[in-house]
Amino acid sequence: MIIATTETIAGKKVKETLGVVKGSIIKARWFGRDIAAQLKNIIGGEIKSYTDLLNQARDEALERMIKQAKQKKADAIVNVRFATSDVMQGSAEILVYGTAVKLK
After folding, report:
1. Total-model pTM
2. Which residue segments constitute the domains of the chain, with CATH numbers given?
3. Which of 10, 39, 62, 70 has the most CB atoms less than 10 A away?
4. pLDDT in tens for each of the 104 residues of the chain?
């Protein structure tokens, strides 16, 4: 499966547009991470546990989008975008979406 943030894929032609595909996940923070984050707010630096949490969430959302595209028998997903939004205090939704296509 080819995944691209561009409208086209170099050297490939789109034969058919299959429609929008998406994947999302809502992740909640853990109390232990919040303690470490508060400390980092005071002394500065990356909050590694949150970085790891969001990276895992993005990967899972991406896998869910790819699964949808495979169900449509897509060869690629173009125009892929990620979005993040707060759902409630302490949790965030990671959404990834794009257009599933068949290639020539």
Report:
1. 0.83
2. 2-103 (3.30.110.70)
3. 62
4. 999 999 999 999 999 999 999 999 998 866 555 555 566 566 666 777 778 888 999 999 999 999 999 999 999 999 999 999 888 777 889 999 999 999 99
